[in-house]
Write a structure and sequence with these properties.
The chain is about 55% helix and about 20% strand. By secondary structure, it is of the alpha+beta class.
């Protein structure tokens, strides 16, 4: 297991990356129509599926924002793991009295 100091640095780096990804949208992009494609953002809101129309001119931005959400989820999982490792280190230090 990495040292306490290394874990703290990793935690700080992850929290900064999370902070950099807070401009996001939750959902997936779907298309409708064959002759004139339309784009929608679909997501679950309080257990119900909600669909919002995406104007074609903002589609690239919506794609970037939904990708950021996927990255944010990954960063949060990594932070969770680092937090568990830090917790284990703290418990070990308290147990050993050092």
């Amino acid at each position: 297991m990495p040292s306490f100091h290394t874990l703290e640095r990793r935690r700080q780096r992850l929290t900064q990356q999370i902070n950099d990804h807070l401009d996001f949208l939750i959902g997936s992009i779907s298309t409708k129509g064959f002759k004139y494609p339309a784009y929608n953002l679909t997501a679950k809101v309080q257990g119900k599926t909600r669909t919002r129309h995406i104007p074609k001119d903002v589609l690239p931005l919506v794609r970037r924002l939904t990708a950021r959400y996927r990255q944010l989820k990954s960063l949060l999982r990594q932070l969770d793991e680092v937090n568990w490792q830090l917790l284990a280190k703290r418990a070990s230090i308290q147990k050993d009295g050092t």
